[in-house]
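Risk register update: the risk of archive-format incompatibility is retired. Evidence:
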Amino acid sequence: MEVVGEAAGGHEAVQLAKRVLPDVVLMDVQMPEGGGIEATRSIIASNPECKVIILTTFDQEEYVYDGIRSGAVGYLLKGAAPEELVDTVRAAWKGEAIFRTTVAAKVIGQIFHSSQALQQETDLTTAAQRIESLTERELEVLQQMAYGLRNEEIAKKLYIGESTVKTHVHRIIQKFDVEDRTQAVVIAIRNRIVH
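Archived output:
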């Protein structure tokens, strides 16, 4: 893991990210010269492979919601232990979504139940076919993925082996025809198939 850049404001972060093409960005919410949410949108628009983690002192629903809408794959408080920060960066790099603050679960629940949270997938037939192709166990694993749990945590929660979880995650990604688990979770949110 290597730090490849540091920016003092939102606009600077966007320009720096375009130059160094980072794998993962830790983004503050409130910064001078363009906030972190706007910067997150811009960075992901120019580099869709980049994973952005919101790192902030504010555990507020509005920021979690806006972070998810902007494309961030994680939301972590600055008071988190150093090991948790490192684990979150590694998880984001692997394509995992990590939202572990006090209000994150509540906000994710609101997104699942809000028809205005994300635009419906344009090809509803394809979306319906993807959803119908999931087994009951795959739906359970997808639910836990949506809550930001890692494979080992899903395994413990569902009383199955970690290798079995990896197999289910792989099948979900294949069935949804996406590149990583974050994109699979986005489809689940868009179609309200997780709660």
